[in-house]
């Protein structure tokens, strides 16, 4: 059975994230896309994360936007 971490990794691969952006996801230890979206909503971008430059930031924001529509109801319950 796939874990949330496996699902997040798979989403990153499907979105063709660069190796650096994937490493940022894994290093920060986001457990799910919900965690990633919540981080984005709280911080506005990802540049504060280690080794996250403009390109990686843009890639991660695009990933959030892609999946945010599917999880909007769940995120609003977290706030």
Radius of gyration: 12 Å
Largest sheet: none
Choose one word for the global shape: globular
Low-pLDDT stretches are 73-79
Give the end-to-end Cα distance, rounded to a whole number of Å.
Answer: 29 Å
Determine the fraction of residues in helical runs and give it as a percent range.
Answer: over 70%
Question: Could you tell me the strand content as a percent range?
Answer: under 5%
**Average predicted confidence as pLDDT:** 82
Can you describe what's shown?
By secondary structure, the chain is mostly helical. It is globular, with a radius of gyration of 12 Å. The protein contains 4 helices and no strands. The termini are far apart.
Topology of helices and strands:
Layout: H1 4-14, H2 19-28, H3 33-43, H4 54-78
Helix pairs in contact: 3-4
In short:
With 79 residues, the protein is mostly helical.
Top keywords for this entry?
globular, 79 residues, mainly alpha
